[in-house]
């Protein structure tokens, strides 16, 4: 990932430099490059750059030079930053990577604008990429943007749905949301690399699918950590997702199983009382007892396996395919 | 404009129909097609569709069929709707076309999301347009999005600047903001029509320039109406822009002239006291006395003349050029 960051960095800096200075300042803060005063920030709050790495490896996996994928890598990083920025507004998340979210630091209006600037610049960078594949790349990015928005819309709508009964969110509906919200952009990163590297449609589609599975695995791990994660590692409070009443896979799958424990869970979750402290302990224990934790770990393993299987079954350049496989494994290699 | 709306409507409906149902519902409300319950709204709160008309006439003016421009027309209408939606959040404008703004009706988070959905769909519609000119059209739209964001950034930043002294906003800086915020999309509408109609670069650039002048004229008229407009006609309270402390052209040009009246104005505007009732009457009178109203009318006329001159001096299909000229005149034909 460090190699990929180094290759993409100049183009990413150039793209941010083309923004209006004020939105550029917010973008640099959001990317972890600078503190709110605009001073370079060496505290390591910069993201890992998973998406840019996937784009570059996507191109190399289809036998192209990783450099071909740089406009795609820049585009997916900018889209990722845009979506974190706007999602934090919608979800009222005040913290991002242990620092105040952009809306908290600069205000909601400016944060809306900075997100817009990043989104527009993402498309611009890709639309201005040289070569024969630009049009296909832009269309693919547009489809992904539609998926991202749909995923966020589904996620926001889940908040108003009951824990139980005909209106409840099913595990399948949750999976569809997570594929849109998390999987689509990871798939797009790989696919853009392949498109810009001149790969045939079949290979592009396969890599997109691998990225989507990776995203679903990633989300399942996040959901486990959101309930049982160690705050010292996750940077979030213990039982964070339970306190916020978030409808996540472990809880939904525990409820969908029915039975006595599920019934007890519904009663607790629908009581209207805050789920924190001992109540959160109890909910977490019941979700685990009902099999929610194990099922989510299985879900993560299943999608990681599926992603790696796609890599094996697709004709790819062996070194890049091996690197991709190692990256997939590494990304899921967290304590969960 | 009615002819253009009829030609564009099916494609616009289709584009909105491709959104997630919830963002589509908000989009239909923002477009004035439906009330918040999703029921078709026949109260005429739909926009006039200036931008879609410019796109179609832009294609016809370069000798192409207006239908060629439909993807461009849809894109600029969606971008316009997106920008109103997000700008209303940033400016805390609670009313839009005599109805609650989307953020007021649905909440800020959902309104951010609906704007994102519209923006993404605008680019998607254009990127999927058939023909050889798609790439150029998408790149032009991206440039315009960057202009729009820059214009909004400049406008928001003006709020924090003093009325007087070295940090004051100059009339030139205001004009640059207005060209980005209002002119760029009108220019883009015409230019996209021309691009999709296969026009040479020189013609595209000329039509873009005409649209930008039109936008500057339009903004100048808006600024006059924002202070001296009849609330029964504008739908806004009397002295609306003064009450909000907005830095508009009439005030800035009055202040830039210096002299005793300008000095009195600075004192009033910088006093920290609310500018309403009699205070607003007085400020309006002083701005007029210092020549701000007349200078803004001149500014509007000058830019309308410049826009029409570009039409005359550019080789265009005569019927469409005549229609464009009439549309330009009609758009500025308000009581000011």
From TrEMBL, chains A, B:
Family the entry assigns: Belongs to the FPP/GGPP synthase family.
Protein's name in the database: Polyprenyl diphosphate synthase
Keywords: Transferase
MF annotations from Gene Ontology: prenyltransferase activity
Pfam family, one: polyprenyl_synt
Keyword set includes Translocase: no
One BP annotation, GO: isoprenoid biosynthetic process
Gene3D superfamilies per UniProt: Farnesyl Diphosphate Synthase (1.10.600.10)
